[in-house]
Design goal:
The protein has helices spanning 11-21, 39-47, 58-61, 93-98, 111-119, 131-140, 167-175, 192-211, 217-224, 229-239, 242-245, 248-264, 272-275; strands at 2-7, 31-36, 53-57, 68-70, 76-78, 84-87, 102-105, 126-128, 143-148, 162-166, 179-187. It is α/β, with parallel strands linked by helices.
């Protein structure tokens, strides 16, 4: 059976998926047709129902829970790993709101966008772009500020930019919970047996990556391209953790809270019993 699988080129994803897609696990009769792209595009594909198994933002998952089931393994979820609101100077929220310039965000349906809502809902002047375009847009002065994710949190200072607010730290302060950033989900129409099988394979792939970190290096480097080794390893270390093996009770609580906040914002309506149900 062919499974259409989508994940990003970021080191945490290629690290976790290496064993699954590069023949290091016994996948039986399953054949994976792989799409690798930016989280903005992965979210769009999920909303259009184009993929059977997909890495997507938790903010997007809240919108497609009727079509996709959350897998217990593979999440990017944790403490101290949230997006940052940055600028090329120190500005107040009121100055950013009235500047006439936009706030660059790495996708309308990313968790980063939801966390900006959680911190400063008044900043509605937003401009959607690919995540790697955010810092250059802020540095040029095209945008008054931007929300950065992924490896950019390790490099923004060398570009002369400043952090106005760690949006993840704000979430943690207000909720006491880890930040649910990215999820792995499978199409509900595959059926519970197949979804459980994919969940188990995802967990095996993450565990294999932890046990043999050197084996995934070539695959990670292939897609990390010009990323420095130190940044690449810091990226993996920050976004791949015990929650990636299993959400656990604390992870599930964080996911439910994020969806509840999304509902308060009027972004979507979720059925609580559906959040962690595979059927």
């Amino acid at each position: 059976m062919k499974i259409k699988l989508g994940f990003s080129s970021c080191p945490n994803d290629t690290f976790m998926f290496d064993a699954l897609v590069n023949g290091r696990l016994d996948t039986g009769d399953l054949e994976f047709e792989i799409y690798i792209g930016d989280i903005l595009h992965l979210n769009q594909k999920a909303m259009q129902g184009e993929l059977d198994m997909v890495k997507l933002s938790y903010n997007t998952l809240g919108r497609v829970l009727d079509q996709y089931a959350l897998l217990d393994a593979g999440s990017a979820l944790g403490f101290g790993c949230g997006p940052l609101l940055i600028s090329n100077g120190m500005y107040s929220l009121s100055e950013m709101e009235t500047s006439g310039k936009s706030i660059a965000i790495p996708g309308r349906y990313t968790t980063a966008s939801l966390l900006l809502n959680f911190y400063a809902p008044q900043l509605t002047n937003r401009q959607e772009m690919l995540f790697h375009e955010v810092m250059p847009a802020v540095k040029r002065g095209d945008c008054i500020g931007g929300v950065i994710i992924h490896e950019n949190r390790f490099t923004y200072q060398r570009e002369g930019l400043v952090c106005l607010q760690d949006l993840g730290a704000f979430w943690e302060e207000k909720t006491g919970l880890p930040i649910p950033l990215g999820a792995i989900a499978a199409r509900r129409s595959l059926g519970t047996e197949m979804i459980s099988r994919l969940e188990n394979l995802m967990r095996q792939s993450v565990e294999y990556a932890f046990a043999h970190p050197e084996i995934s290096r070539d695959f990670v480097c292939e897609y990390a391209q010009e990323m420095e080794e130190e940044v690449m390893q810091a990226h993996i270390g920050l976004y791949v953790n015990d929650f990636s093996v299993s959400l656990g009770a604390k992870g599930r609580e964080a996911v439910a809270r994020l969806f509840a906040e999304g509902e308060k914002m009027g972004l979507y309506s979720t059925n609580p019993t559906q959040i962690l149900s595979l059927s």
